[in-house]
Design a protein that fits this description.
The complex is a heterotrimer of chains A (444), B (622) and C (408). Chain A is mainly alpha-helical. Chain A has 24 helices and four strands. In chain A, α4 packs antiparallel against α5, α11 crosses α12 and α12 packs across α13. Helix content of chain B is 40%, strand content 24%. In chain B, β9 and β10 form a beta hairpin. Classes of the chains: A mainly alpha (444), B alpha+beta (622), C alpha/beta (408). Chains in contact: A-B, A-C, B-C. At the A-C interface, α20, α23 and α24 of A face β8, α6 and α7 of C.
Chain lengths: 444, 622, 408
């Protein structure tokens, strides 16, 4: 084992206290309440990471998962988004859903063109099932997925009229990135994928349409079939780096530096591009707990909303939440194009900030359209009737893991102590609304 | 509508009931402390000769009432609740048993126990005492605000005194409130004043309540005077018109209400929604010009009946623009169809051509785009024919609409989510055969549109078929049996088709239902009719609804979880309760009828007959 | 205009702090160089393909009468514009403006190689580009993103229609702000009293310059958002509009636009859309209703603009992605066509009929042949109205039309 992603030794490199546990649970999961953070600290870093990597989603999430296929039959977007969101809120294995979300954005496919919600649901199940294993196997499975075949015109890629769409995106967006391949590679690869069609809602290898001549792709000769192209692309050194960058952007920082990328890519390659193994090393690494990368990501809309729904333990009209995340720029099952969501600063615009503000208000004050009804008095507990500082401290701990700038905290305390805040549950709701509208609330 | 008035009545009545029932939110300790005096010191009955009381409690009500209500025998009903079959049925429901395991149920039990502690007697007895042998209520308008007057004839003076003592305890415990209750004496009567909103006192065995001190004085004076006063004419009229043994009689002087508070009695004569105008246009018109509105509630064993009557105005019948509601044909028998597995069957007298012609008067400008669109869409479906000139005049009245549960007989793979089958049945005018052919063409056109969509989605299209069933020609589309393409799953619920039987044209979403309707309409001896004088009639079938609710359980629950934000447990409980309710229902119907010189809106809910309770079913619950 | 002078002025303006909210149309004209900041264009998009032939009607033309049997509009259905040409009676408010010389009708507007697909033709009109792959930015957004119009604190472009933000209003920096209802402007969301206090707190939370670069970006964007919202809210609060707008969505959209404009918001362009023009069947009633609503909405809008004293600084452009075929179809409707008229409304316009009416005897596969390229209309508005370089914004030079009256 090389030096890449060297482990974080508790004690020598730093503590594993509340702050570290909260950071880990925010990144590898959807954030956790103070009680859970305490339990993680008590259990220790290794045990917590193992628990995060474990797979038991719990009964409620499983029931929602089972209902997905039924809802998909209706071919409507919002209810389907609602089922996945509900699963994310209810699950006891959040990493599984986070990985599915990552791959959904990576192999971005949209219902708008696929048109069959059932296929989109199957694709999501594929991401869940294989998203934690070897990347090569995942990529191959995705290449044969009906939704992907329709989305990138694979189903009309024939020997007599090859369609380069899938081959190009495979190389440019799924495995290697620009600059690592040539036009010829795209053309030859496209010919390898001819005949990869859909029949009776399943992958079907159409022999008649397949170009069986041996082709040369990425410096390798004698390739005949699409599967071989995937293997070659995944084995290319640029792939580990390309995918490792995505992993870093999802779990470490919006703008990771070159050193981090190199380190992670090396580890990823060592693990044979096995996602779980790499994530285990990552979550246990010094890199992960580096202070530079704390709160270095803007929470994606889905991540943000799910985290808040979990932290406040409220019911919601999940389909409406799906629409809301769409207004914030991330519509599940309907990414804008095959590039997916850029993330980071791309989440920030007047419109999307307003949409987040509306969600924050709906959550704070209870909202008929979103169906949320947070019991602020219960969440605030003993801090409910106390002075501003205590209340703000409690809410900050619960909602943003204490991630407030001193100036912001001071303003909130001043507001909480002022006349304008009102009293009782209304006061808590108003402070919560302001807290969630602060720019810091978007950082995860 | 009389919304604000109704709301204020409900608030006052609700307040009175809540207050008297002890459901306010004061701390338990203060209550318990205050409650002990209620149990210990029951006021002794009045000494001396029994006071003469009015023979008819309702004569205590003022004559200028806008709204009067009379509840008869409710007390006995309340007292009988713990031993009645209704309670047994409720507790035998699977969803109730499930509810018993939830926290809200425990809260409910705690609340009831609390009420009993404060009231000093079981809750059914308390309710019985409060509702008494008869309860009368009136609301009048004075000084711009509604004024409430109510009286309850309790079992005896002791019961009245007990209730008054309860009021005193409430006052004692409400010392902390911004508007604490107080005791007062008016004209020699001891009066409990609650929240400066309700004055409560007793005269003999009559408990009296009024919304102001002045009103209470008047009321008490009348009660003390005794003798035989006349009942307010508004109530007298309601009693005369009410069915035998009505539990509740209600009457509203809408003419005076419209004069005093025009905003609370306003009905839109021109509606924004064409569909709404079609359904309720006549009701709106009659309600707007009604001089008095009467209501009655009858509880007959396991059947509940509610009847609202708008007496036909003394002036001319409905104007020309309303001829589409076909009131003139009310005397003719109105047929109805009842296919097996009935979910909903309905029939309406509507003259379609007349509605279209007069829609300018029945609908506002905002509805115009909807009409333009209907014209455009139907034009497409009927291949260039004009809706107003070619299609509508062929439709006679009545129109029937049915929903039935599908049996999926002969369908290889029933879909996961089962929709009910639906059909429209029209009586045609004029050349029925020609209209039948037009209908067939429309079906073909419609299926062609569906199939264009199927082609885009690469799923199974509908295949046209032309068959005969009992000598009747059917044209429609069905999904092919041996096609390797996937069927859009919901689509397996449909096989749209049409046929015409004699003078009836039928358009159905499934073959199965169409054939059932052909059978029923071909056999004249099987014909069923609605009650005489019916203008519109709608009936629900509980048994089939219960079966469908069970079949579609997963879909309904998932819908509640994803779209309504309920938790899985809540959604399951809700769905089970609805299924149970449907199973317990034998029949439910809603109708508008012209009879006895009035326009009636009738509602009836009959529970299915049950075997008598066995000891085992008495488990659970208070 | 010397480049150096323009460069200096834009730099100076850019360096200024966010502009304070100025009273009703009292803002100063940009002195010597740069696009005209005091001028406004309201885009009214008739979505679906408007039947121009039944809007500006050649009622006397026997070819028209022959082609339109059921949908024919006769002399009594129009108000006269010129010999044998009339404006639909439903657009009567616009006809009064025509008589006052404030309505310009450019006839036969289209583009070479007309595409009859909604999406493609819409993309073409919105991006002003006939390239096979449509650019990702719209022409009016490009105007709005010019540094002399997109000054800090200024909102150059607003969409007051519902639905997707149109491509015309999507710029390199993202889509323009979009509002359908006034309530959406209320940033202080939350029930109960003290909304102003909460609004102040929300704004204050966006102040400060410490923290990471990401935090600074978030705060900056939040500040810009709050400013925009506050500006628009102030405009709406200060506005005075009449109540004569029709109940249809186009009425609400134009009313909101009138509120923003009469309330003093300094905009360069506003986009409004009216849906429903894709009348393949039974066109007569539907088209009449749409035109009636359009006429009423534009009439009410113009009255409010005149009352606000801005009629010489506002131009309204009414257009559609294509016209419809000359020959009506079997369902008493019309199918997708090509050229159609563009209406322009404004006191600074040279009113009347412009361009050549497309000939009904020289059709292009059953469609009207265009006589004016729509990009000429755009170029005229960019160069003569906004005084912004059209060649740069449209990618090529186009012949201009004498639409704008040269005045002060």
């Amino acid at each position: 084992m090389s030096d890449a992603l060297a482990p974080y030794v508790v004690g020598r490199d730093g503590p594993f206290g509340r702050a570290e546990a909260a950071h880990l649970l925010r990144r590898a999961g959807f954030g956790a309440r103070p009680e859970e953070q305490e339990r993680a600290v008590a259990a220790g870093l290794a045990a917590t990471v193992e628990k995060l990597l474990a797979d038991d989603e719990g009964k409620e999430a499983a029931q929602l998962g089972a209902s997905g296929a039924l809802v998909a039959e209706g071919d409507a977007l919002a209810p389907l988004q609602g089922v996945w969101l509900g699963r994310m809120v209810a699950t006891r294995a959040p990493l599984r859903e986070k990985l599915a979300l990552l791959w959904h954005g990576h192999f971005a496919t949209s219902l708008a063109k696929v048109q069959r919600a059932t296929w989109m649901w199957w694709q999501y199940e594929l991401f869940r099932a294989r998203g934690a294993g070897r990347f090569g196997e995942l990529a191959l499975a995705v290449a044969r997925d009906p939704a992907m075949l329709v989305w990138l015109d694979g189903s009309s890629n024939e020997k007599t009229a090859p369609n380069e769409n899938f081959a190009r995106e495979l190389l440019e967006l799924f495995t290697l990135g620009r600059g690592e391949y040539g036009e010829r590679d795209v053309q030859e690869a496209a010919r390898c994928f001819t005949g990869w069609h859909v029949k009776e809602q399943r992958f079907w290898f159409n022999e008649r349409a397949h170009d069986a001549k041996p082709k040369r792709v990425l410096g390798r000769d004698g390739l005949q079939d699409g599967g071989e192209v995937v293997d070659v692309a995944v084995a290319h050194p640029a792939c580990a780096r390309f995918v490792a960058t995505k992993l870093l952007k999802a779990f470490v920082a919006d703008a990771p530096d070159e050193a981090a990328i190199a380190e992670t890519a090396a580890a990823f390659a060592e693990e044979g591009l096995d996602v779980h193994a790499t994530l285990r090393r990552l979550f246990l690494s010094r890199l992960f707990f580096d202070r530079r990368w704390r709160r270095a990501r803007i929470a994606a809309p889905v991540e943000w909303c799910v985290s808040l729904l979990r932290r406040t333990a409220t019911r919601s009209k999940l389909a409406a939440v799906g629409t809301a995340t769409g207004e914030m720029g991330q519509a599940l099952f309907a990414p804008p194009d095959v590039k997916g969501w850029d993330g980071g600063a791309a989440w920030v615009s007047s419109r999307t900030l307003l949409a987040r503000g509306r969600f924050a208000a709906a959550l704070a004050y209870g909202d008929g359209a979103l169906g949320t009804a947070v019991d602020w008095a219960m969440l605030a507990g003993t801090a409910a009737d106390r002075d501003g500082a205590t209340l703000v401290a409690r809410l900050a701990e619960l909602l943003v893991d204490d991630g407030l700038e001193p100036a912001t905290r001071a303003r909130l305390v001043a507001f909480a102590d002022s006349e304008g805040a009102g009293g009782g549950a209304t006061r808590i709701a108003r402070v919560a609304h302001l807290l969630l509208s602060a720019p810091e609330a978007l950082l995860v | 509508m009389a919304r604000s008035l109704a709301r204020s009545i409900v608030i006052r009545l609700g307040g009175a009931v809540a207050v008297a029932g002890g459901l306010s939110l004061l701390p338990l300790a203060a209550w318990a402390e205050a409650a002990w005096p209620a149990r210990a010191a029951v006021a002794a009955p009045q000494a001396g000769a029994p006071r003469p009381e009015v023979a008819d409690l309702a004569s205590l009500l003022p004559d200028d009432a806008l709204l009067v209500a009379e509840l008869r025998g409710a007390g006995a009903l309340a007292r009988a609740l713990p031993t009645g079959t209704l309670r047994d049925r409720l507790f035998a429901l699977p969803s109730w048993k499930r509810f018993q395991k939830t926290p809200p149920h425990a809260q409910l039990l705690a609340g009831i126990a609390f009420v009993e502690l404060v009231g000093g007697m079981p809750v059914a007895e308390l309710l019985g005492a409060l509702l008494g042998d008869s309860l009368v209520l009136s609301v009048a308008m004075g000084d711009g605000a509604p004024q409430l007057v109510a009286a309850v004839r309790t079992a005896d003076a002791e019961a009245a005194a007990h209730l008054l003592q309860l009021a005193r305890s409430l006052i004692a415990a409400s010392k902390e409130e911004p508007k604490p209750g107080r005791l007062d004496t008016l004209d020699g009567h001891e009066v409990a004043v609650l929240r400066e909103q309700l004055w409560v006192g007793a005269v003999g065995r009559d408990l009296l309540a009024a919304g102001s001190a002045a009103k209470f004085r008047e009321l008490a004076a009348r009660a003390v005077a005794g003798g035989a006063r006349a009942v307010p004419p508004l109530l007298a009229g309601a009693r005369a018109a009410a069915p035998q043994g009505a539990l509740l009689n209600l009457a509203l002087d809408s003419k005076r209400l419209a004069a005093i508070a025009p905003d609370s009695w306003k009905f839109p004569l021109e509606q924004d929604e064409p569909f709404g105008a079609l359904l309720t246009g006549d009701l709106m018109r009659l309600a707007a010009q009604a001089e008095v509105v009467r209501g009655a509630v009858v509880l007959d064993g396991a059947t509940l009946r509610v009847d609202v009557a708008l007496p036909a105005p003394s002036s001319s019948p409905l104007p020309e623009a309303y001829r589409c509601f076909a009131h003139a044909n009310a005397a003719q028998p109105l047929p109805i169809v009842r296919p097996p597995e009935l979910l909903l069957t309905s029939v309406m007298r509507r003259d379609w051509a007349a509605f279209w012609a007069d829609h300018g008067e029945l609908c506002s400008d905002a509805a115009e785009p909807a009409f333009a669109k209907m014209k455009s869409d139907f034009g497409l479906l009927f291949g260039g024919k004009s809706l107003a000139d070619d299609v509508l005049p062929m439709l006679g009245e009545p129109m029937l609409f049915v929903l039935a549960r599908q049996g999926f007989a002969g369908v290889a793979e029933p879909p996961q989510v089962r929709f009910p089958a639906g059909a429209f049945v029209y009586r045609t005018r004029g050349d029925a055969a020609k209209f039948g052919r037009d209908l067939e063409n429309a079906v073909q056109m419609g299926i062609a549109f569906f199939n264009a969509d199927s082609a885009q989605k690469q799923v199974m299209p509908f295949v046209l078929f032309l068959e005969e069933h009992r000598g009747v020609r059917i044209v429609g589309g069905r999904l092919p049996v041996d096609d390797s393409r996937p069927a859009d799953p919901y689509r397996r619920n449909f096989s749209p088709c049409a046929a015409y039987v004699g003078e009836w044209a039928i358009a159905s979403s499934t073959e199965e239902l169409l054939k059932q309707l052909i059978d029923e309409l071909s056999a004249p001896d099987r014909a069923s009719f609605t009650p005489a004088g019916a203008l519109a009639y709608l009936e629900l079938g509980g048994a089939a609804l219960a079966r469908l609710a069970v079949e579609d359980r997963e879909a309904l629950i998932t819908n509640a979880v994803v779209n309504d934000g309920k938790s899985r447990d809540e959604a399951e409980l809700q769905q089970e309760f609805l299924a149970d309710l449907a199973r317990e229902t034998e029949r439910m119907h809603l109708a508008t009828r012209l009879r006895d010189g009035a326009f009636h809106v009738e509602f009836e809910w009959a529970l299915a007959p049950r075997a008598p309770a066995t000891p085992a079913s008495r488990e659970g619950g208070p | 205009m010397a480049t150096t002078r323009r460069g200096f002025l834009t730099a100076a303006l850019g360096a200024a702090a966010s502009l304070p909210l100025l009273p009703r149309f009292a803002f100063a004209r940009a002195a010597l160089a740069g696009a005209r900041r005091d001028r406004l264009l309201v885009l009214v998009d008739l979505a679906g393909g408007n039947d121009g032939l039944n809007m500006v009607v050649p009622f006397a033309d026997p070819l028209y009468q022959k082609a339109r049997t059921a949908l024919r509009i006769g002399r009594d259905g129009v108000l006269p514009l010129a010999d044998g040409i009339g404006l639909r009676r439903e657009l009567a408010p616009l006809h009064t403006r025509f008589e006052a010389g404030e309505l310009a009708i450019v006839q036969g507007v289209g583009y070479p190689g007309p595409d009859r697909s909604h999406f493609r033709s819409t993309d073409i009109w919105h991006t002003a580009s006939l390239a096979p792959v449509a650019p990702t930015t719209g022409w009016i957004a490009r105007l709005g993103e010019r540094s002399d119009l997109a000054l800090p604190g200024r909102i150059p472009l607003v969409v007051t229609a519902g639905g997707n933000v149109p491509l015309a209003c999507v710029g390199a920096r993202g889509p323009a702000p979009q509002f359908e209802r006034v309530e959406e402007l209320d940033v202080a969301m939350g029930p109960g009293a003290g909304g102003d206090a909460r609004a102040r707190e929300l704004a204050a939370l966006a102040e400060g310059a410490d923290g990471s670069a990401t935090l600074r970006l978030l705060r900056e964007t939040a500040r810009a958002t709050h400013r925009q919202m506050a500006q628009m809210e102030q405009a709406v609060a200060a506005s005075r509009v009449s109540g004569d707008y029709p109940k249809a969505p186009v009425g609400a959209a134009l009313r909101l636009a009138a509120q923003l404009l009469s309330g003093g918001l300094e905009l360069s362009a506003c986009y409004v859309r009216q849906e429903g023009y894709d009348t393949h069947a039974y066109q007569a009633d539907l088209h009449a209703l749409l035109l009636r609503d359009l006429g009423a909405a534009l009439g009410a809008f113009w009255n409010d603009i005149v009352a606000a004293g801005a009629a010489d600084r506002v131009v309204v452009m009414v257009w559609s992605e294509f016209g419809r075929r000359v020959q009506e179809n079997g369902s008493k409707g019309t199918d997708h066509g090509a050229a159609a008229p563009v209406l322009l409304l404004g006191q600074s316009l040279r009113g009347g009929l412009h361009g050549a009416a497309p000939r009904l005897d020289a059709l292009d596969d059953g469609d009207l042949r265009f006589t004016t390229d729509f990009r000429s209309v755009y170029a005229t508005l960019l160069d003569d109205w906004f005084e912004a370089p059209s060649t740069e914004l449209l990618g090529a030079p186009f012949a201009k039309l004498p639409l704008i009256r040269r005045s002060a």
